[in-house]
Design goal:
The protein has about 120 residues and is mainly β. About 0% of the residues lie in helices and about 45% in strands. It has no helices and eleven strands. Strand 5 (about 45-50) and strand 6 (about 55-60) form a beta hairpin. It is globular and about 40 Å long.
């Protein structure tokens, strides 16, 4: 079972990117799909997650109002739309999947499956 993250790149401050996570082997009803990021020298941090049949979303405070997570069940894709990007958003972004309950959706150790990461660089 694999996850494939894509869509990273170089963007200027204030710009936008959309990351994609292909998750073909996961039931979106049973699994949370999360996005995490890790900058050089820093710990991995939670960015956003979507879970449950209703697609409940969760965001880190640092991205709330700028990033949107959504999914396309037919395409087995989960997207992270990133707007108003800042230099501090520069990181490797990972998507992950797991049978995660709401109270632990921000804990990376709760996710059993990880994609390979995609680099986002925000710089002028």
């Amino acid at each position: 079972v694999q996850l494939q993250a894509s869509g990273g790149g170089l963007v200027q401050p204030g710009g936008s990117l959309r990351l994609s996570c292909l998750a073909p082997g996961f039931s979106f009803d049973d699994h949370a799909i999360g996005w995490f990021r890790q900058a050089p020298g820093k710990e991995r941090e939670f960015v956003a997650a979507i879970r449950g049949s209703g697609g409940t979303t969760h965001y880190a405070d640092s991205v709330k109002g700028r990033f949107t997570i959504f999914r396309d069940g037919a395409r087995r894709q989960v997207y992270l739309q990133m707007n108003s990007l800042r230099p501090e958003d520069t990181s490797v972004y990972y998507c992950a999947a797991g049978n995660v309950i709401t109270s632990t959706v921000r804990d990376s150790i709760r996710y059993a499956y990880w994609g390979q990461g995609t680099l986002v660089t925000v710089s002028s």
